[in-house]
Amino acid sequence: MDRMRADRLLSLLLLLQNRGRMTAPELAAELEVSVRTVYRDVEALSASGVPVYADRGPAGGYRLLDGYRTRLTGLTGDEADSLFLAGMPGPAAELGLGADLTTAQLKLRAALPAELGERSRRIQERFHLDAPGWFRDAEPVPHLAAAAEAVWELRVLRVHYRRWRGEVRRELCPLGLVLKGGIWYLVARVEDTVRSYRVSRILAAEVLEEVFERPAGFDLAAYWEESSRRLESSRFQGEAELLLSERGAKLLPMQFGAVGAEAVAAAGPPDDRGRRRVVLPVESLPVAVHDMLRLGTDAEVLGPPELRSAVAGAVAELARRYGAPKDDTPGAPPNHDTPNGAGRTVHDPQDTPKLRSKDGRPR
What is the dihedral of CA 230, 234, 238, 241, to 10 degrees? Predict the structure, then answer.
C-alpha cells in the first residue's frame, strides 16, 4: 500500500472516530477524493479488521463500532485547548505542512477522551488566528519551502534576493524562520554576521549539498527580539511637538500604535479647549510630513520649524491642486507646473529640509 493511501485510510478512520456517522459524499468531500474511492477505502479498512459498519436508509452512513477509540491520558483540559490554538493552518500550508497539521489534529482529537474532544471542537469553533494585518493580503512566498528545508537540514541556501538598492546573490547559512505580522523572514548567517531576509523578496533559491555548523548557543527568539528592538530604536530620527484636538488624541494611538499611545500618556492635561500638547517620535522628514497629513485638522505641528514648514507647504500645494482652476474653462485641470520660489514646485524632494535630531544637528 502506498503512503498516500495509507495516510488517507488513517484520516478516514479518524474522521469516523471524531464525528461519528458520516455519509460517503461527506467523507469524499473531507478527503478530496471520489465517492467510489471512499467505498474502496472503507472496504480496505473493514478487511484489515477495523469495525466499520454501513447504516442504510436516509439517515445512514458509515460508522465505527461503539467504543472503538484510542484514548490519550495525562492531558488537562487547558493543555488540550492550548494545543488546538497553537497551530495556524495558513502558515503551516505555506511551509508545506498543511496536510500534516490537519492529520495531526485529527490524531490528537481522536485520542482525546470524549470530554476533552468536545472542548477542542469548541476551541476551533470560537477562536480563529489570522496572522496578516488588515487591508493586506498574505505575501506570495514561492521559495519558503526551500528556505525551510535549508533551515531544517542545516544546508547552505543560494539565493537571488531583491533589496531596495538592487538585486544581489548570496550564499546563506539559514538559522531559522520567523513569522511577523503575516510576513515571513529568514534569519541567516552570511560573512560571520547574522541578518534577516524577507522571504517574499527571494527571487530564486537553491538548497546546496554543502552543510554548515549551527552557531553554538544561538537563540532564534532572543536574536529576533534584540533585532526588533534595534530596528525600532533606529527608526526614529527626531521628535515632533503637536497640538492635538480631543479627537486627535484618540487617533494618535490608532495610527501610530504603541508610540502614539505612549506620547498621549506622557502628555499633560488638556487646555480649556480640550487640546493637548504631545511629543511624538518621527521618522525622516518626508515620512513625518505624510504622517502629519493623516491626522488632518486634528493636529497642528508646533515644531520643529522644518517639519511645520514642510507640512504647511504640502497643505498649500494640496489647496492649490484642489482649489478652483485659474483657467476659465470649466473643468480645466490645475496647473501642476506652477513654480515655487527658486523654480521648483513645493513638493520637489530637493526642496525638503532635513529633520534635526534631539541635539539640534541635521540628519
Answer: -40
Closest CA to 282 of 247, 311, 312: 311
Higher pLDDT, 253 or 106: 253
CA distances from 77 to 18, 81, 84, 279, 350 (A): 17, 6, 11, 47, 63
Distance CA 27, CA 190 (A): 49
pLDDT over 90 at 349, yes or no = no
More confident residue, 220 or 47: 220
Query: C-alpha grid cell for residue 13?
Result: 478512520
CATH architecture of 144-234: Roll (2.30)
Helices then strands (H, E): number in the chain? 12, 10
Q: Is 219 helix (H, G, I), strand (E, B) or coil?
A: coil
pTM listed for this prediction: 0.51
- Residue 350: what pLDDT? 46
Domain regions of the chain by residue span: 3-64, 77-126, 144-234, 238-351
CATH code, residues 3-64: 1.10.10.10
